[in-house]
UniProtKB/TrEMBL annotation:
Matches recorded under SUPFAM superfamilies: Aminoacid dehydrogenase-like, N-terminal domain (SSF53223), NAD(P)-binding Rossmann-fold domains (SSF51735)
UniProt entry keywords in alphabetical sequence: Amino-acid biosynthesis, Aromatic amino acid biosynthesis, Oxidoreductase
Pathway annotation: Metabolic intermediate biosynthesis; chorismate biosynthesis; chorismate from D-erythrose 4-phosphate and phosphoenolpyruvate: step 4/7
Protein name: Shikimate dehydrogenase
InterPro entries: Aminoacid_DH-like_N_sf, NAD(P)-bd_dom_sf, Shikimate_DH-bd_N, Shikimate_DH_fam
Alphabetical list of Pfam families matching this protein: Shikimate_dh_N
Taxonomy, superkingdom: Bacteria
Shikimate dehydrogenase substrate binding N-terminal domain segment(s): 8-90
């Protein structure tokens, strides 16, 4: 029986990277009595019962679609998580549930080396929990951000509004939608790829497949492309540091 239990909270997460990553990490570190498991919740309202039932849990990661919804079930937020408005890491400290956001750390460290001086404006495709961390980091880097949504509000753009001018003026494109994730690898965001040039940087938070259709379309046109694997590894390592603090 594991003495130190950790896990992932999300919906339909059997595909997840985290369980395999942390299980291997525990093994590589020679940590006995450590386990990591998936907690697939049909509804976030089941979260309190999960934590109360598994009183030996010490830390949790949070993924789609609960990064924002889980916040109302926490006792405290790290200042960065509060500013971002999304949580992907929870430290269970006695009876206290403390929320953090390590997506921001992972994204900043993984995109930094690819940014160039002309990368001053970005389009973020999707408006879910992960997109909040992306917008926060880009803002901290001095890059102006515009969200693209299927159902845009007054501060966002719809996909139909994307044209040559918009893409020329936004050389950084970040896909925060699940479109293209295995097994639906033929899907991709509905943007006018013909207007992408070698001035663009395309970043996809998806890591499986390694090269999504979104990234392939950018690559065809000479754009720099980055997938989400390194970001995922870095955010997981930062979560581990938080749990061990």
């Amino acid at each position: 029986m594991a003495k130190h239990r950790f896990g992932l909270v999300g919906k339909n997460i059997s595909y997840s990277f985290s369980k395999g990553y942390f299980t291997k990490k525990f093994s590589d570190l020679g940590l006995e009595g450590y386990s990591y498991e998936n907690f697939d919740l049909p509804h976030i309202g089941e979260f309190p019962a999960l934590v109360e039932t598994h009183s030996d849990l010490q830390g949790l990661n949070v993924t789609i679609p609960y990064k924002q919804e889980v916040m109302s079930y926490l006792d405290a937020l790290d200042s960065q998580a509060e500013n971002i408005g999304a949580v992907n890491t929870i430290k269970l400290d006695g009876n206290r549930r403390i929320g953090y956001n390590t997506d921001a750390y992972g994204f900043q460290k993984s995109i930094g080396t690819f940014l160039k001086s002309h990368h001053t404006n970005a389009l973020i495709l999707g408006t879910g929990g992960a997109s909040k961390a992306i917008a926060y980091v880009l803002g901290q880097m001095g890059i102006a951000v515009t969200y693209v949504s299927r159902n845009p509000d007054t501060s966002q753009m719809g996909y139909a509004a994307l044209n040559r001018s918009v893409l020329q003026n936004h050389p950084v494109l970040v896909n925060c939608t699940p479109l293209g994730t295995h097994p639906n690898i033929d899907q991709k965001p509905n943007i006018p790829y013909s207007h992408i040039t070698d001035k663009h940087l395309l970043f996809d938070l998806i890591y499986n497949p390694e090269k999504t259709e979104f990234l392939k379309e950018g690559e065809k046109r000479g754009a720099d492309t980055v997938n989400g694997l390194r970001m995922l590894q870095l955010q997981a390592d930062r979560a581990w540091e938080i749990w061990r603090e």
